[in-house]
Amino acid sequence: MPSKRDVLAQFSREELQSTVEAFELAVADRRVREQLVEAIASSKKATLVDVLADFSRDRLKELCRALALDDAGREKAALVERLAGSKAPPGSVRPAHASTPPTANAAPRGGAPAAVQVDLFPGERLTIDRLEAHLWASADILRGSIDSSDYKNFIFGLLFVKRLSDRFDEECDALVAEGANPEDTDEHQFFVPPRARWASIQRTATNIGDALNKACSALEEKNTGLEGVLAGIDFNDERKLGDAKNRDAVLARLVQHFSKLNLRNTSLSEPYMLGRAYEYLIERFADDAGKKGGEFYTPRMVVKLIVEILQPREGMRICDPTCGSGGMLIECAHYLERHKQNPNNLSLFGQEKNLGTWAICKMNMLLHGLASAKIEKGDTIRDPKLVDGGVLRVFDRVIANPPFSLVHRRRDALQHSTV
User: Fold this and answer.
1) Domain encompassing residue 225
2) CA nearest 419: which of 395, 387, 397, 372?
3) Of 84, 109, 137, which marks where a domain is finished?
4) Which of 145, 263, 281, 329 minimizes the number of CB atoms within 10 Å of its CB?
């Protein structure tokens, strides 16, 4: 019969760290694996039964095989009993089908498994086609119960949080290898606080909407560049997601769906493919939304034609005063790439009235590696934000698909505007 330490020795570092966080155990240095094992092994409240209770059946079988134990059977309780050496109390181990599909690794209460690849062989990288298909499948979880113009925000938000968390973990691994402190905020492009890390989100079984809202707030609090980007997404919205029971069921499925993706740079087949997948989702959501889709999306070929006519070049200042989800500005960057120029030498500016669309635009820019783009919130006509000293800024190119159907009832006020 393996000891508690023997079982813990088979845990990944992420699983150990997550267990320490879940049971609020004191560890001098969480980078040191031996200290993590010691803290859990000596804890009376972090029993193996509790730690293993929410592991997926496949993960429990892996642990059994690693410890030369019988991995036969489909009952999770029996597998936990073999590993823990004691019978699990009734109800402490959830059935494999209770909250996660058979192909997904459930998040263990004491720690999430290492990132799970979907239908990929070892060493194989995620392709854009597989990523797009998986992301669009996430809409099926919401489709039918939520209007298509609403559910895009939940999916965009979860994708963004998952990407930030995976990239943060990747940076942490590199810092540990270099002997640096992975919790140093200055060492990360975006610092992900513990409650916003995917392992913590995966462990949440109830009040998932509240946990996601708090995760988004924590991200914005720690990263000024994200201020307002996630605040408009309410994962606890009863009007859109139903009562508490229904919200937990839907959000649990979404979290587990995104948990199948490893969004670290090393797992992606090409740079900025997440940005391309994001554009794909925007296009699909616009199609789903019908007429409403025109509020945040202009067809790709129309955008490409306009950019080809404008011929942006390195060093230019380019503005889209009605930027929507940012597709026109991003296409300007793509244009430079196609012409062997550096898109980072563009200065991109935009303004968007709809706050939800503004947030999508900000996320879109970040996922395309265009973090320096200045995207303002507000009505371009009544409250222009792209000004210098009270005077409208001057740009080398202005590109826009303005809302021609918009009725301006304050004509007199606009005629006497000081800007």
Assistant:
1) 128-278
2) 387
3) 84
4) 145
Nearest of 190, 202, 257, 262 to residue 227 by alpha carbon = 190
Q: What is the pTM of this model?
A: 0.66
Given a contact cutoff of 8 angstroms between Cβ atoms, the answer to whether 280 and 132 are in contact is yes
| Residues 365-412 pLDDT 10s | 998 989 999 999 999 988 999 999 889 999 999 999 876 555 555 555
Residue type present at position 312: P
CATH for 211: 1.20.1260.30
> Are both 132 and 248 inside the same structural domain?
yes
Helix 208-222 / helix 148-177 crossing angle, nearest 10 deg: 60
Calculate the alpha carbon distances from 388 to 283, 322, 385, 391, 395 in Å. Answer: 34, 19, 9, 5, 12
Provide the pairing of β-strand 374-377 with 387-388: unpaired
> What is the C-alpha separation between 39 and 146, in angstroms, rounded?
44
Question: CA-CA distances (angstroms) from residue 314 to 321, 329, 333, 334, 361?
Answer: 20, 13, 9, 12, 22
Alpha-carbon distances of 51 from 89, 195, 407, rounded to whole Å:
13, 19, 59
Residues whose CB is less than 8 angstroms from the CB of residue 331 and which lie 6 or more positions away in sequence, other chains included: 300, 303, 304, 307
Residues 28, 153, single domain; the answer is no
Q: Is the pLDDT of residue 362 over 50?
A: yes
Q: 377 and 308 share a domain?
A: yes
